[in-house]
Design goal:
The chain is an alpha+beta fold. The protein is 52% helix and 9% strand. It folds into 2 domains: 193 residues, no CATH class; 281 residues, no CATH class. The strands form 2 sheets. It has a 5-stranded mixed sheet with strand order 1-2-3-5-4. Strands 6-7 form a two-stranded antiparallel ribbon.
């Protein structure tokens, strides 16, 4: 059941008992119930109509459209005010939001600036399982829309007790927010699964204090893709891995555990300096290694947690510790299957760094004898998997540690050498052939320009798998945990047949 943080004031309601009861019922709506509220429906419709007037930078450039834009704002503002009592923990944000909309209109709908509202929105302070938020911003949506359009989203926090215990202990990450979609405007009817403050239109960049991931979308597309991939490859899933495919909420919790460890890993460890977060142009395989490093950190920490807690008597563990132990095992499946089945063949072949990371993990497991593709059937030696995957993590960590003492160009060359020991580069690769001396002696741009868009093409296994899985992966755009369960055996079999 969803929960709300209620703000009690001295402004008590005075009136007939039935009036008090009606007001209490209205305030106690869950965010899922708010999704059917007339105020939300008006707000959503007005935002969708407003978006049609916006340019890529978020402005409404045509003066002839300003009257219509003002009419939409005249719907948006009272709708936000009407819905605000359902989100008392966001009162300051929703008030600032209305002021930013009003100022935007007064200034002629130029490039939007919602910095004040963004600074007031602090979801990381309210990580309560089931808590709702109403989020409205002009923003881009990663893997969704590159235009800075207004989006309106109803979300619900995912924060089970065992995650709270993890975060309060060794895996502190005060910026991390786990969310579930409730309803949204078109920018999120896409592959976007994040809500990041840096995507909001604003006049200056503040210090960011939170980042949110929609684990329900991650879980839903994982379940659909893995079910289909297992059927195509005739992979016999372990019972606990198979159970995830039938349980959306379980899979959401697994992804929260994976993501909270992954997210904090970007700035932890023996790092060259800041290998990913500083805005810099690098060969895309460097981003592959950084994302894979963080995923494999989540994997190895899950192995450690599972092994450590499994050595203790079950009766001596708290309920949260048992949940950590049990979910830690499932995180290992999630990292491997999401990486090798979805990441490897999702998106274009143009500098696809997540795709490369999936290819690298698959090839590493295959070449180290724990993953087998024999007689057109995939098998995995699960007992041997943890140590083999951790060995890849060790290799990437060693690369980073050595690179503390290396110049940037030498780090890039060493990283390429490491990847190409497992994956075969494109036959036309200038990197594989050896970069000419003028490039080696020149600026970093020359190195980056020499990388092919598809420097490490798909293997023959992945070319065949991609043909069979493309329709399934495409079908996950816009999916949420509340989507009709299209991952049933019958539906999955139909998609597999269509793809084949």
């Amino acid at each position: 059941m969803s929960q709300f943080v209620h703000a009690h004031t001295q402004d008590a309601i005075v009136g007939e008992p039935e009036v008090v009861e009606d007001r209490a019922t209205e305030q106690d709506r869950t965010v899922r119930q708010v999704a059917t509220h007339p105020g939300w429906l008006r707000l959503k419709d007005a935002v969708v109509a407003f978006r049609a007037l916006q340019a890529q930078d978020g402005s409404v450039p045509d003066q002839a459209d300003h009257r219509a834009a003002a009419e939409h704002v005249a719907t948006i503002l009272p709708a936000i005010a009407e819905l605000a009592p359902h989100f008392p923990h966001d009162a300051a944000y929703l008030a600032a939001l209305q002021r930013d909309f009003a100022r935007w209109e007064q200034q002629g709908f130029g490039v939007p600036d919602f910095l004040d509202a963004l600074n007031a929105f602090q979801p990381q302070r309210h990580r309560v399982d089931g808590l709702g938020h109403l989020v409205v911003f002009p923003m881009v949506t990663q893997n969704g829309s590159a235009s800075r359009l207004v989006e309106a989203v109803l979300v619900e926090v995912i924060w089970p007790e065992f995650i709270a215990e993890l975060e309060a202990g060794e895996y502190g990450n005060q910026l991390f927010v786990a969310l579930r979609f409730v309803d949204f405007t078109p920018g999120y009817d896409t592959n976007s699964a994040v809500l990041f403050p840096e995507t909001v239109a604003m006049r200056e960049v503040p210090a960011f204090t939170w980042g949110a991931i929609f684990q329900d979308r991650e879980a839903a597309r994982y379940r659909r893709v893995v079910r289909a991939a297992a059927a195509i490859t005739k992979l016999d899933l372990p019972d606990d891995a198979a159970a995830m495919l039938d349980d959306q909420e379980l899979t959401e919790r697994v992804f929260v555990m994976w993501d909270i460890i992954h997210d904090r890993s970007h700035m932890r460890g023996d790092l060259p300096f800041d290998p990913f977060m500083i805005k810099q142009r690098m060969p895309f395989f460097l981003y592959s290694l950084e994302e894979l490093r963080c995923d494999l950190t989540a994997f190895r920490e899950s192995v450690r947690l599972q092994r450590t807690l499994s050595e203790l008597p079950d009766e001596g563990l708290t309920a949260a510790q048992r949940d950590i132990r049990d979910h830690a095992r499932l995180v290992q499946y999630a990292v491997i299957f999401d990486r090798i089945f979805r990441f490897a063949i999702t998106g274009s072949r143009v500098r696809n760094y997540d795709g490369l990371g999936g290819q690298l993990l698959f090839a590493w497991m295959h070449q180290h004898g724990v993953l087998h593709w024999t007689d057109t059937q995939l098998t995995i030696d699960w007992d041997a998997v943890p140590d083999v995957v951790i060995a890849l993590s060790d290799q990437i960590n060693e690369l980073y540690w050595r690179s503390i003492d290396r110049p940037k160009s030498a780090h890039w060359l060493a990283a390429y050498s490491m990847v190409s020991q497992t994956l075969t580069p494109h036959p036309a690769s200038r990197w594989a052939a050896g970069l000419p001396s003028e490039t080696l002696a020149g600026p970093p741009k020359g190195y980056t320009d020499a990388v092919l868009d598809d420097e490490f093409p798909l293997s023959m296994f992945y070319e065949a798998l991609n043909k069979k899985m493309a329709a399934v992966i495409a079908s996950t755009a816009g999916i949420t945990g509340a989507s009709p369960d299209a991952s049933s055996d019958a539906a999955a079999s139909a998609r597999v047949a269509d793809a084949a």
